[in-house]
Amino acid sequence: MSLGALITKSRTDARLSIEDLAKLTNIPSTLLRDMENDNFAKCGGETYARGHLRNIAAKVGIDQRIFLDLFESEVTSPAKPIRDLLNENNVTMPYQEPKRISWKILAAGSAAALILFAGAQIFFLDSENGAESDVITTVSAAPSETAAESVAPSTAASPETTITSTAVGPAGVNVDLVASRAATWLFATNQDGKVLFSGMLRMGYSKNFIQPEQVNLRVGNAGGVDISVNGENVGSIGANDEVVNLTYNAD
Predict the structure, then answer these.
(1) 3-74 falls under which CATH superfamily?
(2) Read out DSSP for 80-138?
(3) What is the pLDDT of residues 72-89, one digit of tens each?
(4) Non-local CB neighbours of 13 within 8 Å, separated by 6+ positions
(5) 147 class by beta-carbon count within 10 Å (0-12 exposed, 13-18 middle, 19+ buried)
(6) How far apart are the C-alpha atoms of 43 and 57, rounded to whole Å?
(7) Which residues pair with 232 in a beta bridge?
(8) Is the pTM of this model over 0.85?
């Protein structure tokens, strides 16, 4: 359901005509009709459009965040990072991710540096004291092994990451909602009125809510979702494009 269609449904559910809503909000009826047809070009900009949506939401008895979330997802376009804007205008060179250097290359480079350093030391000692050449072989081999041991990663097995799921006790409620057949807008709160989620849920995506006492849901497209509570499938909660309010308690 689009934002314009949701405005229309919310208005009719509140038993208001276009003219009634225009009087309550001081928004011209022609502009209200455009908004219900998903045309927000005449609102005077995004800031004014959001103000109109808050005004309408208050008069039809719906949470303004539902209108605003749909407005952000359907009407406004995400801002591009400044780097992308500069690249598009040839102001700067395209950004490239720094290449990561393999630890093997670092190990080999460190070992080579140690060998060269040891060889230089032996060369000077040999020049001054006339040391025998077999000393070079003995000293140059040792740094190579030390470098490999110090640079190479440990072969000891690292502990595996364990993901622990919190089980819900008898006093809790665990609600799973999946947009299995169509996208929907969703508004969820707990027993204290705290907002758990507000926005669009695309088809194929899911949300899980775990609360100790209560989960309240307002689903904008009841026919497109499946719900299970504490592992048990609830079954059909409504038809396509139907807005339903649901409450699940721990007991």
Answers:
(1) lambda repressor-like DNA-binding domains (1.10.260.40)
(2) PPHHHHHHHTTSSPPP-PPPPPPHHHHHHHHHHHHHHHHHHHHHHHHHHH---THHHHH
(3) 988 885 555 566 555 555
(4) 60, 243
(5) buried
(6) 16
(7) 229
(8) no
